[in-house]
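#structure-requests
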Amino acid sequence: MLSSSNAYYVADVAAFIGTTSDEILGVITANSAFSVDPSQRDAWVMQIAVLKPALAGVEGTIFFEFNVPRIGSRIDTVLISGPAIFAIEFKVGETKFKRDDLNQVWDYALDLKNFHKESHYAPIIPILVATHAPQSETVLPAPHDDKVFPPIRCNAEGLQYMIRTGLDRTAGNSLDARKWGTSPYQPTPTIIEAAQTLYAQHSVEAIARSDAGARNLRLTSQRIEELVEEARQKKHKIIIFVTGVPGAGKTLVGLNVATKKRDHTQPTHAVFLSGNGPLVDVLREALTRDEVARLRRRFDKTRKGVVKQKVQAFIQNVHHFRDAGLRDSGAPSDHVVIFDEAQRAWNREMTASFMLRKKKRVGFTQSEPEFLISYLDRHEDWAVVICLVGGGQEINRGEAGISAWLDAINTIFSLWHVYVSPELTDSEYAAGHALDTLAGRANVVKDDSLHLAVSMRSFRAEHVSSFVKAVLDCDSQKAREILGPMSSRYPIALTRDLDKAKKWIRAHARGSERFGLVASSGAQRLKPHAIDVRVEIDPIHWFLNDSEDTRSSFYMEDAATEFQVQGLELDWVCMTWDADLRFVQSDWNYHSYVGSRWTSVHKADRQQFLRNAYRVLLTRARQGMVIFVPTGDSSDQTRTPAYYDSTFEYLAGIGITILKN
């Protein structure tokens, strides 16, 4: 018998067949991380009984209960034989093949392909075994381009035939099973998956894509925890600025610190704040659903409402936190506050306008950063503010940028200790003169560990942000250079037919991969294509509900805008491009639909918001996307073909594949 920390039982097929079922069961049970109930024991007994005759004459290695960290589950059986990987999921006693079960085994295969290093280039055959089904499939369908086959349906008696058929259909060098079993698993979870994993008390390393990424996240998280503890012991008030390359995991670091410090009874209890309302709502609901499901598996009947209350205390909307400071003159209960996307906090003008209109407060003179720091400053002993800083993502007026935080520290809260990433000087963060004014202060420390230098993005999508930047910078040559090698792993298509775009998306999405329709909030003339951005979606239903719910993204009936998707992701995106952003000759033209016609946008900040809106939309897909540019209508002055043709030609000229008839 072989050994592996990733599985409960590992053995050569010959050794497996020659070992008694009781011995095999004893090893599996001994290695189980949980107590084994009789139904699970009986399921393992049946699996062993089915596999022994099915593997007769097959050379290879078998893994029982192979760990899949990102999904938080285990594959019942993995068989490594020759060049092929078989992911086998058993449904003991089942007579039917359920769609959710098929998606489950397909997801296992895709997770291995995408995130398990030694599986990247191997053929993977997922098999669903409903042991008591009356019939098995006898034909193995063609694999997709990445060598992942569609899932096979078979009963107990048909498993041997499908394994032999799979071996006959695959070619290549034989895999080294020992090397495969210890190969690094490099997941890139969505922010929802990451939050669920961390909330379930798993380590941040378990969801890092690479050793370097895990090390980077661990070092930054540890440094923040050290600074928090130092502030508590020395009775200091400190502010920490964390930067990172696109996709490096700044939000992940914030969630990691917040989950580790979510115990309300501890003095270093932390709260995670975001001004992104849809993100807060979706994360809260996702965590609640996941925690309830975990409790139910333990036969705990705690009500969903009780679970939700705990989650709401952990992740809060920054504006609600701010309002609590307005109502009460005392300090907040939290000493440690984490601000996600801190650069998007409101400037003084926006805050004053809001306070006058919504709170009836006349003469409010503080920016949102200044007020939030002042709220924490009410603590007499110590406080910690952690600012997670991104660049180039401002999509709304009144967003102050990071300089507003620095100005507040410099002019009003000069006794606060400041820990900054050296990269905050980069022009991308627009810290500007405000950072220069802090340079001579003794209580300002530049700390390399506060910068996340390693991208956590999927190996498929790691160059997408650079490609999109080149497209929006009108650098067609650079965009073309990036697109070439990227397109084989991250397909991008272009079409003028929305139905074709939807069909392309559905053809590419596999298992439970999520897809949806997105559009700019300024895309007011897509209504002839049944896309009305004025109809607001519910992000919770859109992002979390399954494919049978018409409110979910899967139906591709309701388009989400940049305000609803920023900070969240889909696997596949159908991006719709309207006449608000038009490529003309060699640059972008910016437009807003007012009344019954398009008007030009001249203000530089509004142009930047519009360009950033498209940046957000074009970087939401983890696996690939299709871009739909309408043909327009010469009889409709608001949709003349000239508004769209040059944009389509520009994108096609970059080399994006045009969908054929």
